[in-house]
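Researcher: We plan to redesign the surface later, but first we want a full-length starting point. Tokens attached.
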């Protein structure tokens, strides 16, 4: 019975871990002093065109910039538009087509037989392969003195092909929040 409880616990844990929608990571210059960074501005006033209509979207650009501005301000950084800030912020967004199969499904069954009890656990894999879009958002923090990359945060998540503005804004905010939760890096 203890073994069955452990298997059930591990199965439920795997399901919750597998449902995490946003993956984030960071990389940074370990020699950089992030304590001196107080002010920022955007590296580019307008994003460069990529040729992908899903990415070259002024509404999406505005949502990303507003989320970054808001979260950096909450962390105590001041945005300045005149003079030289301590760091520049830039971002890149891309959408990639991926191929995946249906998620693993699980089932647990219990029963009683004529000579005792028995239990079963079944794990099956999906058999349908589909294409899906995955968006990658990269936020860069660059030193204004020498143009050196100080920090990079990255997130990936599945992208809905058709969504409404409220859902898009919510997803952008979630991505930016998860990325900037890592900034500044903690030693």
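Model: Full-length starting sequence:
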């Amino acid at each position: 019975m203890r073994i069955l409880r452990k298997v059930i616990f591990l199965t439920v844990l795997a399901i919750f871990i597998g449902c995490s929608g946003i993956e984030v990571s960071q990389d940074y210059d370990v020699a950089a002093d992030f304590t001196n960074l107080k002010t920022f501005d955007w590296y580019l006033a307008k994003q460069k065109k990529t040729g992908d209509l899903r990415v070259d979207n002024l509404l999406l650009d505005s949502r990303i910039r507003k989320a970054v501005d808001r979260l950096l301000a909450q962390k105590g950084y001041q945005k300045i538009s005149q003079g030289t800030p301590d760091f520049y912020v830039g971002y890149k967004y891309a959408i990639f087509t991926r191929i995946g199969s249906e998620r693993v499904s699980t089932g647990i069954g219990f029963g009683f037989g004529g000579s005792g009890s028995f239990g079963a656990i079944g794990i099956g894999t999906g058999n349908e392969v589909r294409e899906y879009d995955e968006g990658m958002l990269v936020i860069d923090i660059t030193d204004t003195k020498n143009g050196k990359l100080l920090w990079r945060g990255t997130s990936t998540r599945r992208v809905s092909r058709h969504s409404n503005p409220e859902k898009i804004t919510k997803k952008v905010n979630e991505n930016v929040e998860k990325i900037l939760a890592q900034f500044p890096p903690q030693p």
